[in-house]
Amino acid sequence: MARYGTAYCGISTEVYTTIQGGSRVKIGVEFYIEAIIGMIMITGIIDPVKVFFFNSIIGNDEKNRKAAAAKVALIVAGILVGSVLIGRELLQLIGIDLGAFGIVGGVVVAGMGFEMLYGGGPSHPQGAKESEEGPMSGDNLVMPLAVPLIAGPGAITAAITLTSAEDSGAALLAGLLGVAAVVIVTFVLFVYFGNVMAKMSERTAALVTRLGGLLLATIGLQIALGGFRTYFGI
Question: Which of 72, 26, 44, 30 is nearest to 131 (CA)?
Fold first, then answer.
């Protein structure tokens, strides 16, 4: 059960929540910001390769660009929102401790970040193999673009991990905010910045990916530490 603190200048500065073991933890606005940044980095939506896939699928049909972008965004939303809403309960149903999952999930997210940092490209859970293969005959907006290039195993794991980071409504809200950010950025980039992103140089794309990997590795380690805290009731 969560109890929210006071707000200053219209911004809530802290949230008090009770986690497993009865300890009370203070969650700041940074928790929500990290969730949003983390989900955007994990899905790698700002990767020009994904824009290339999108442009290859729709071709010169600019009239349907918005409809196609909306379809991709809705598919991604459905998968990730489902992960946020039922992932935690599914873990509890099969007897997996949320703290232990937070530790493992945080390590997985951090590993993805290090792979992006040193490789300069998407990690394997983000669909690196599919990115290298490129679009093939018969591909559509669902596969491989929406799944697994955007809402892949890494993104699903991260969505569940975020909602398991704290035993409260604050974690659920953070997960939903992260998914909402991904959906909005997906639609806006594909519709309004598709051509610009597709023309981004490889060096610039690699730099953006490496910076995102650094942020992702840091967030993953913080999630893992939160899992330790929940598991041991610190």
Answer: 44
Q: What was the pLDDT predicted at 184?
A: 96
Instruction: For residue 155, report the phi and psi dihedrals to the nearest 5 degrees.
Output: -65, -40
The whole domain housing 15 covers: 2-232
Angle 160-146-218 (CA atoms, 0-180°, nearest 5)? 45
User: Phi/psi class of residue 10: alpha, beta or left (left: φ > 0; alpha: ψ in -120 to 50)?
Assistant: left
In the three-class reduction of DSSP (H, G, I as helix; E, B as strand; rest coil), residue 137 is classed as coil
Q: Which run of H or E residues covers position 7?
A: strand 7-8
List Cα–Cα distances, 66 to 47, 51, 187, in angstroms: 19, 13, 8
- Which spans in 25-137 are helix H? 29-43, 48-58, 65-93, 98-119, 128-133
- Per-residue pLDDT tens digits for 210-224: 887 888 888 888 888
What local confidence, expressed as pLDDT, does residue 186 receive?
A: 94
Phi, psi of 140 (to 5 degrees): -135, -165
Structure tokens at 10: 């219209």
The reported pLDDT for the residue numbered 9 is 33
Residue 144 per-residue DSSP state = B
Range with the lowest mean pLDDT among 59-68, 137-146, 163-172? 137-146
In terms of Cα–Cα distance, which of 32, 45, 79, 68 is closest to 184? 45
Domain total in the chain: 1
Residue 15 pLDDT greater than 60, yes or no: no
Q: Name the nearest CA neighbour of 181 among 62, 37, 70.
A: 37
In 3D, which of 189, 177, 188, 179 has the Cα closest to residue 151?
A: 179
